[in-house]
């Protein structure tokens, strides 16, 4: 193959077949994909969770990950938030002519490794190559599907009065990492993305607890925006304890310099768990036993004080409303 992606690789002819066989099948190989049918034949039963997402992150490589692993993590996590075991994924690549083949192979290899770690098979896909300038390097679309294993499934409109609000770890890591890498900023201490597949921890959580009302990953718009979505759908108020929200010192410092609020920065390896008060300690125990949840803590409670709103109780004891993110704080974050 050429050392750069050529328009020929999107033609559907011999060049396309070489790209598929020598690159994609090499890293994504499984029995279903290897048949190279126009569609995948899947064996599933019962209630299913399905999610689709597109990834345009800039830069495509960043500390803690790249667009390939991020595409797997984002979709796997979205499916798992429904109390489901992710089983299968599709992927669609839109590639700019001239992208170095070494970069493409790194991304594909990273995506394949992330899928194997998450326990999902990439069973079908598509590749398009567009002229230089028609797309910025590479965009990836994914769809994931999995078996829902709990009834009822966690849902964004299922938060209830008295529920405890838990977070699996520190917030703002991914957003600040992308901004710093994009702008060439050097912080006093290194920051890196928290991009990770959370499905193994999430499945353990719903299997061992009798009742989990909501699970959500606070990606674009961050913690504050995600909680606003939940309180709006559930018609309850979330009272957050500012002093309990975990933020790394280096993220706090970077946000202070740049005038950003970590509560609105994207996360790609954290999740919110909202469940009855009586199960909160057990949930924290399960979360902290996993490396991806070792910094888990309780950050708030669902009340009837201001239905549909998120209220931050500050370190000084004051209260302020946290609205949804207005506009785009940082475009192309995922």
UniProtKB/TrEMBL annotation:
Annotated protein name in UniProt: Hydrogenase expression/formation protein HypE
PurM-like N-terminal domain residues are 38-146
Q: Which residues form a coiled coil?
A: none
Domain of life (superkingdom): Bacteria
Using the record's annotation, list all stretches that form the PurM-like C-terminal domain. Answer: 162-311
The gene coding this protein:
hypE_1
Q: Which family does it belong to?
A: Belongs to the HypE family.
InterPro entries per UniProt: HypE (IPR011854), PurM-like_C_dom (IPR010918), PurM-like_C_sf (IPR036676), PurM-like_N (IPR016188), PurM-like_N_sf (IPR036921)
Could you tell me which SUPFAM superfamilies the record lists for this protein? PurM C-terminal domain-like, PurM N-terminal domain-like
| Alphabetized NCBIfam families for the sequence | hypE
Organism expressing this protein natively = Pseudodesulfovibrio nedwellii
What Gene3D superfamilies is this protein classified in?
A: PurM-like C-terminal domain, PurM-like, N-terminal domain
């Amino acid at each position: 193959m050429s050392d750069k992606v050529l328009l020929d690789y999107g033609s559907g002819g011999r060049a396309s077949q070489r790209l598929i066989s020598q690159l994609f099948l090499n890293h994504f190989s499984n029995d279903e994909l290897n048949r190279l049918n126009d569609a995948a034949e899947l064996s599933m039963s019962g209630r299913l969770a399905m999610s689709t997402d597109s990834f345009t992150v800039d830069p495509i490589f960043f500390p803690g990950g790249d667009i390939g692993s991020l595409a797997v993590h984002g979709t796997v996590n979205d499916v798992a938030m429904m109390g489901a075991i992710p089983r299968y994924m599709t992927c669609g690549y839109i590639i700019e002519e001239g992208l170095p083949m070494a970069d493409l192979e790194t991304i594909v290899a990273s995506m394949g490794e992330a899928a194997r770690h998450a326990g999902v098979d990439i069973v079908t896909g598509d590749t398009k190559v567009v002229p230089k300038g028609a797309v910025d390097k590479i965009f990836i679309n994914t769809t994931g599907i999995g078996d829902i294993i709990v009834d009822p499934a966690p849902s964004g409109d299922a938060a209830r009065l008295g529920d405890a609000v838990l977070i699996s770890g520190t917030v703002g890591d991914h957003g600040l990492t992308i901004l710093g890498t994009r702008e060439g900023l050097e912080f006093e201490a290194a920051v890196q993305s928290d991009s990770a597949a959370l499905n193994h921890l999430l499945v353990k959580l719903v299997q061992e607890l009798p009742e989990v009302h909501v699970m959500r990953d606070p990606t674009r718009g961050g913690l504050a925006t995600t909680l606003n979505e939940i309180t709006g759908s559930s018609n309850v108020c979330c009272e957050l304890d500012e002093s309990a929200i975990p933020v790394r010192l280096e993220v706090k410092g970077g946000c202070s310099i740049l005038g950003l609020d970590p509560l609105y920065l994207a996360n790609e390896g954290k999740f919110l768990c909202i469940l009855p008060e009586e199960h909160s300690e057990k949930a924290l125990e399960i979360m902290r036993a996993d490396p991806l949840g070792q910094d888990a803590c309780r950050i708030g409670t669902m009340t009837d004080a201001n239905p549909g709103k998120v209220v931050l109780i500050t370190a000084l004891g004051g209260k302020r409303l946290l609205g949804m993110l207005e506009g785009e704080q940082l475009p192309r974050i995922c």
